[in-house]
Amino acid sequence: MRKTRTYGTYGTRLPGMPREPVLGRLIVLEGADGSGRTTEVELLKEWLEVEGHPVVDTGLRRSTLLSQEIEEAKKGNTLSSTTLALLYAADFGDQLENKILPSLSAGSTVLADRYIYTLMARAIVRGATRSWAERLYSFALVPDLTIFLDAKTDILLHRAIAKYGSLDYWESGMDLCLSRDRFESFYRYQSLLREEFGFMERRYGFRRVDANRPPAAVHRETRELVAPLFRQNRDRQR
Known about the structure:
- The protein has helices at 37-50, 67-75, 81-105, 116-125, 130-136, 153-164, 182-204, 215-237, and strands at residues 25-30, 55-59, 109-113, 145-150, 207-210.
- The protein has a 5-stranded parallel β-sheet, with helices on both faces.
- By secondary structure, it is of the alpha/beta class.
- 52% of the residues lie in helices and 11% in strands.
């Protein structure tokens, strides 16, 4: 018999959120742009599906309600930090209600390419208090496992340039006026985020993986962290 569980939140339950046990698993991959999260989600999904587990992937700014609107709003580079945080919270809430919860109830494993931790870290380095950010996202489900892919800023920089040819305005923290130079602003902004992730690692029990290595090495270690969640189910079926 496969083990079920009732998902808890960080404080607030969405209206109509089911209280009955669910079969699925929620696994979160966190890390900065260029840390290899998306690649790892793809590798994990392929592996889990081969093992016979249905998988649904999700991430930031993927709701049908607000994803395009957020993209358009960011183009003007004029959004306030509070407005940005509220838009992302609404986007996440829509995905939670209409994608994540139904998938977990159906028995699927949900792989999240980033979760509320990135959203809280971004808000906090832009001036929000931790208590405000935690209240804003208190309706989020507590994951079964959160893995933080930790990569050096130099590597993040080189990967961003190789992939996009330039540095993104928001991912460089240019709105914070840390420096007029986008490269220097990128380094300072990523350092602030990394410091906040360090705090969250202790608070929320992240499992850290060295993402400075090739994808194959990162995947091997990540699989070792994920496998016990499904091994428990197999043991109970014997």
